[in-house]
Amino acid sequence: VVGLGCADPPPQLAAKVATYAEELIRGYPAQGPPGDPHESWDAVQQQLGCCGWRGPQDWERHGDTTRDEDRDGAIACSCLRAPNSTRETPWMLPHGRCPTAAPQDIFPRVRHGETGGSRSSGEGAPSDRQLSPQGCKESVQAWLAGNLVTIVGVCVGIGLAEV
Q1: Other CB atoms within 10 Å distance of the CB of residue 32
Q2: Which residue ranges does the record annotate as region Disordered (predicted)?
Q3: How does DSSP classify residue 1?
Q4: Hey, which end of the chain has fewer CB within 10 Å, N or C?
């Protein structure tokens, strides 16, 4: 049945998801209208409170095909935490890359009990926000593992509908 073809064993599925996420990060546009995959990655980072696949440092790595000068020192705006935002009421960030000023501003760690930056400027300059310090790998893999039965069920349903 065709639907069963979409259900890779978990290790293969995890490897495919990792490759796909890394390709999305490498091809992420500096500005302009987002494509559907990039909007989806923004949503993943904002909803899961994570940044990059392994961490914010993923945004510093660029392959030879992505030497866009606008990308130097910039990360996805969806990695930034805004002051006074929560998972229930996320602050909407612009799509694209937000410049970061200095290395010490790029990966600030949030101590337990702290929220984002200390200022609330409405504009939300990158220095006023904090990056999500962890990567999305563990959160995405946990979500996939928790929803694997549903994913396989949808694949089987699609396969049966094709027959």
Answers
A1: 8
A2: 102-133
A3: -
A4: C
Angle at 140 between CA 111 and CA 46, to 5 degrees: 55
CB atoms within 10 A of CB 76: 26
Q: Which amino acid type is present at position 134?
A: Q
* 51 neighbors 132 (Cβ within 8 angstroms): yes
Separation between Cα atoms, residue 160 and residue 158, nearest integer Å: 5
Q: Specify whether the CB–CB gap between 82 and 94 falls below 8 A.
A: no
Q: Which residue has the tokens 């909407």?
A: 92
Residue 61 has pLDDT above 50, yes or no: yes
Instruction: Please check whether residue 44 is in contact with residue 140, taking contact to mean a CB–CB distance below 8 angstroms.
Output: yes
Structure tokens at 19: 């490759």
Residue among 81, 85, 75 nearest 30 (CA):
75
Q: How confident is the model at residue 89 (pLDDT cuts 50, 70, 90)?
A: low
CA atoms within 13 A on the CB side of 74: 21
In DSSP terms, 76 is beta-bridged to 97
- The mean pLDDT value for 95-108 works out to 52
Residue 53 CB contacts under 8 Å (≥ 6 apart), including other chains: 18, 21, 22, 25, 135, 136, 137
| 144 touches 135 (CB < 8 A) | no
